[in-house]
Structure formats: C-alpha cells, structure tokens
Sequence to fold (860 residues):
Amino acid sequence: MNPLIQTLQEAFPEKVEAVEVSNYPTVKIAAADLVAIMQYLKDEQNFDYLANLCSIDYPEEDAFEIVYFLHSLKEREKRIQVKVRTAHNRPEVPSITAVYPGANWQEREEYDLMGITFTDHPNLVRVLLPDNFEGHPLRKDFKGVNVKP
Amino acid sequence: MNVIENLFTGLGAMIYDFLIWLTLPDWLAAVILLFLKWLLIILVVIVDVIILIWLERKISGYIQQRLGPNRLGPGGCFQTIADTLKLMGKEDIIPRTADKVLFVIAPAMFIIVAVMLYAVVPMGKDMMIVDFDLSMLFFISVASLGTLALFMGGWGSDNKWSLMGAMRAVAQMISYEVPLAFSLLGVVMITGSLQFSEIVAAQENIWFVFLQPIAFVTYFIAATAELNRGPFDMPEAEQELTAGPYTEYTGMRWALFFLAEYTNLVAVCLMCSAVFFGGWHGPAFLPSWAWMFIKAYFFILVFFWIKWTLPRIRMDKLMEFSWKFLVPVSLGNVLLTGVGLMLFR
Amino acid sequence: MITSEKYVLNMGPQHPSTHGGMHLETIMDGEFIDDVIVHLGYDHRSVEKIAESRTYIQFIPYASRLDYLSSNLPTMAYCQAVEKLMQIEVPERAEYIRVIMGELNRIASHLLFVGSLCQDVGATTGLAYCMREREKILNLIEMTGGQRMLSSYMRIGGVSDDLPPEFFPAVKAFLDGVPNMLKEFNGLISGNEILQGRLKDVGVISKEEAIAWSLSGPNLRAAGVPYDIRKEEPYGIYDRFDFEIPTADYCDCWNRYLMRIEEMEQSARIVRQALEGLPEGEFRTKIPRILKPEKGAEVYYRIEGAKGELGFYILSDGTEKPKRLHVRAPSFINLMVLPIISKGERFQDLICNIATLDPVLGECDR
Fold:
C-alpha cells in the first residue's frame, strides 16, 4: 500500500478507496468529496500541478468516470490518480477550477465531447465543437452527425 | 557629352520651338509642353516602379538566401509586368458597407499626391517641372497630404483592421513630419533658400551631408517612417493588421496604393540626394540626371536593406522615438547650425 | 462630448499570425486588449474518437498528425505508451534511434518557433534562415521514414526501419553546423534591439500562476521551474545522457524565446551522445500482429514534447481497439493562459504572446 494513499485514507476515513489499475497510485472517491480531497492534496500533500484530466464512458456500468492526474513540482516523485464516478443519466461533477485553475479548459473539453456537467465552472461552454452542435461525440452511443439510424 | 547632358532639356526646347513654329500662342505652347513633361514623369515613374518591385523582390531574395522571381524573362524581370496585367484583370470588389465615395477616391488621391511631388523634385540640372522659391515647403506640405488618403481608405473600408491601420498611419506620419521638417531646416538655414535648385547649387564644393550629418540621420529615419517602410511599416503590418488600410482593396485599386508607395520612395530618395548628397553634382563623365538617379537608387537600396533586416517596432515605442528622441535631436541640430552660422559669418 | 467604447476585433480564423485556424475574439479598448476569448476547434478531427475504432497499430499515423511540426515526438509517446501497456521490451538500438529522431524533431519544431516568431514581428529574414536549417532536418527525417513531416517512423516495439548509411554523414554535417547556426541567430535575431524591445516584459506570468494553470514545457521553465520530464522520470533511455535544462526566472516573451534557443543546443548535445552510443542490433522487436492488452489495463504515459508535457492516457477493454484514448495536448493547455497574459497589453503584444506560447493547432484541437 502506497504511504500516500494511507495518509489520504486516514485524513478522509471511508471515503477513499485504493485501487491498482495503472502506472499511477490510484484512489476512487465520490463526487461529493472531490473538491475537499483535491484541496487537501494541494495544500497538505503539495500536489500543485494538475497534469491531465479526462473522462471515460462506461455504458455497461451506467457511469462516467472522470480521471485526474496530479503531480507535485515540489516533491517531484509524488504522483496520484484520482477517479470519480458519476451517473450516466445525470452526469454531474463539481468543478475543481477553484483549486486548479488549469482544469478550466480541460473540464470544458470533457463537457464538450463527453457531456459531463461540471458544477460551479466559471464558463462551461463548448471549446472544440461549435456551440450549436448536438450530442457529445466521445460517448459510446454517439451515432455521428449525418448518420441515419 | 553635351548632347547627353542636355538630352531632355534640349528636347523640351525643341518641342517648344516647334510649337511656336506652328504659330501657336506662347501660353498654349507652354501648357502643351508642361503637359508633355507630366506625361514623361508619369511614364518614368511607372517604369521605375516596375523595376523597383522586381529589384526589391530580387534583393529580398538575396538577403533571405533564396532566388526570388526567376521564371519570366531573364532573372524574372518580366514578373512585375505580368503581375500588373494580372492585377488589372482582377475583379474590383467594393464592400457593401463601405463609404463608396471615400473608398474610390482614396487610392486615386494617394497616387496623385505622390506624383505631385515630382513637380518640384529635381531630376537633373535644370530638370524640374517648376522651379520656384518655395519648392521645399511645397514638397513637405504635399507629402503630408498622403496621410489623408490613407485615412480615407481606412475609414471608407468600414473594416476595423483598416481603421486601426489608418489611425496608426495618421499618428505615425504626423509625428514623423515634425523631425523631418526640422532636419531639413538646418540645410535651409545654411543656404538661406527653400528652392531646390539653389540648395543643390550651394553644394558644388561640399555636400551638405558633411555639414549636417545629424540632420541627414534624422531625415533618413523620419523618411523611413513617412514612407511606412520597415521597421516602421506599422500601418500595413501584414502579420498584425492583415494589411491595414489596404485590407479591403483588390485589383487595380490596391495596385495604385502600391504604385504610390514606391513613387513616394523614389521621390524621397531623389530629395535625399538633392538636399544632402550634392544632387546632380558629380564627375563629368556621366550626365547630371544620371548622377541624380544613381544616388537616389543607392538610398533605395539602403531602404530595402533596412526593411528586410529589421523586425517591426512597437507602436508606442515608435511614437516615443519620434517625440522623445528625434524631435529634440533635430531641434538641437537647428540650434547648433544657428550657432555655427553666427560664428563663421 | 467625446465618448469612447470598447469594440470587438475578430482575429482569425483567417489571420496570418494565429498559426492555424484559431479565432480570437479580442475585446479592445483602443489599441489595448481588454479581454481575449479563444474559439478553438477549426482543426478538430476527433482524433480521440477515431482511436476508438482503430487498432493500436493503426493509430500511429493519427498520432503523428497531432503535433505535425515534431511528429516523431507524439508518435514516440504513443508507441511507448502502448509498450508500457503491453510490457513490450524495445531493443537498445531502437531506443537510441528514437532519441536521435525525437531530438532532431524537437530542434525542427523550435526552429519553426523562432522562425514564426520572427515572421510575426515582421522580420521575415529570420523566418528564411530558420526554414533553411529546418530543411536539413526534414531531409534527415525523409531519409528515415520516407516522408518529410509526418513520417510515422516510430512503431510499437521499435522503429519502422534501420537508419540508412547516408544518414550518418548528413546528421554529422547538421550537428557541426548547429553552433554556427545559433551564432547566426544570436546575431540576426536575438541581438536585435527592436526584437528585444518587442519581447521583453511582454506577456508576463508569475511562477505560481504558471504552475496553477498547468503550463508545461519551455513556457514553464521560463517561469523558473526546472521541470523537464526527460530528467524527472527519464523515459526510454534519457537517463544515459548528459544534458542541462535551461531555465529562466521571469516568464516573459523574451525568456520563452531564449528557452527554445538554448534547448536546441541541448538537444543537439543529446543527439551527439546518442550517435556515439548507438549500439548494433535489432531495430524492432517482434510484436503480435494484433495487440490485445488485458481488460481494464490503463496507462498515463507522458514525455517531454516540443511544446510541453505530451501525455497519452490509454484505457483498454481487452479488445484490439482502445476503449478510450486521451491526449494531454500541451498546446491546448498552454494556450489557456493567453487571455491572462494578454490582458491590458497592446494588440501587437498579443501577436508575440501567441507566437511564444507556441501552439500547434493540430495538437490543440486534436
């Protein structure tokens, strides 16, 4: 067990689930705790750099997963992957732009392509696709614009 | 030698005599002769510009280690003619929201103003269309009219880029007219005349560039800005303002702007050689008009060299440079000239 | 009574200085910028969606079209990400070839950065000089992959072909010319006072802000953070080379420009060392024709791209196609600070800011 995840579990008892899936130490948390845990990681654990943010569609599990990759520029070897799940019919996750401003466009991109609403985002509009575009192309059930069913 | 030297003046006299022989009244003969002179000037200007555009493309190619135009004719020398023909055949687009009157007048005015400069610019010994005692004042005041044409074009286009370019052009050209005029003042103080023929005649023994080096440098810098040439090509700034006042212009109207820019360039260079570099004076193996053009072309080449080497300066620094550096320096030069004149008289 | 009002100046999508199809809605107060609203997506080809319907091997050419100015770097990142996912070992020689080609491509990308910066500030001669040097690298890339810009030379498990014999004298000639080239740039471009006046104290961002906005690559290093993934987590064989990370302590356009100039020198150093240490052997390992990573396997693999931290997140669902592929595009995230650094500056500074943030729209819009 990674000591970092242990301290995280001690700080947020029963809210942090450790999983081993990738080359990053990974925790799964609930969307409601996201901002608090991110703030804790930034303030107490020196994770000052949001490297990447992306989302995955799990139609078979009826969920979206949003993945955050954090790094620390102060303690260079530290890294963590944070996963958050949200329901498929009403995908809503709190925005972390207040903690990491750099999440701004990345969250907009996920809103644009995957259709996940980030609450409290300062400017949640489409970033890559035109504003009048219908649908969210990265969803697995997206059928394309001109394709007739 | 005398034949070549007096080629143009002799031709003029011959035509005049011929017209008198046709029993035309004196005034009509003079008017016809004047008309012919203008025609010749316009012809010279157009041929000159065609050569200059080719030359600039070749020289910029040389500076940038590439070939430049090389397909049409030897060394690509017919490229400009082909381009001109192409521009003539292009569709003339007037934007729907443009102020049509201003939009149409602007390029015509720009070229007319540019050609007007040649009324007083000496092309050789006794080779001016009119040689009157305020010719330098005429030159400066007509040159500043070009600003108006640029602003008309920028405003008339109804395009923000054009307007921004036009505003910059006005700000820049008005600011740089001041040091331009002041730097010429030093020369005027020495000769005591505003007439080009007298200014050139006064340089028979020593060129004014040696008596007025500061004035020459300030004149040259201010002239670069007046001509909107790099590094002061703020109004056009194709990488920033797309093309400034010329953005909306197409075909021949755009070409007129282009033509006028080069016409101005030649006029300013002729003026530079007349005022600072002894004008038509030079060793007698070449006629006076040849010396005039050799000197002018030298400055044109220097302008090309500067433009293709330096990046564009920022607008606020450009204004600062004029008002905080060039104006005081050129004013100081006037003072210095005055003191010098007092001491040596 | 004279009143003034702010106006909207639409810069792009067709504009010479946006480096591709990008639309900047600038709200101007005279010549000053009040706000910049960036509209992206003119180059959006939905690469991430395409990846879900291509096999792992088929995706390599798409990766090269992300950052088309340094196409060997994104393809290398993608191939290494898949190798990490599948635990494929790459032969020693292939690793060295990858480093050589990647670093050469980084120099090419930085050369175009310098050139387009010169072009944007009006010094077109600088562009011509940079293009002349870049041409030599493109010739080298053509020798290896057969294509000049989008060579898809990197393959999963190695590279597509061995280095041809004529490559070595050519790369040596180029490397010998690098000090001379940098000297020429310093004389023509860096030493120019007008250029310094245009770039110094323009588009400043503080170190804290640069980190908070996830800036990466030379832009972050200009702010005084010596953060280079080649050093931090040496991927491939980067731990074997001796090179420095140039940093500055003030992130303005001038320092962002200098970072690139110095990085070119360091990249040339790495290439020299890699050429010396180039071992004999296989250039590619045998891999299965159809790659099927195990279900649920995921990887986030990042390298130091020419523009910054270039990352690939790949999630497998056990089939021959990835379930999700996400590109952490440095251009996209670096461009986010454009409105912040441009606010209150002049319109001409905006041009310099875009040029020194160095976005590649192909990578930005994906």
User: Anything to note?
Assistant: The mean pLDDT of chain B is 83.
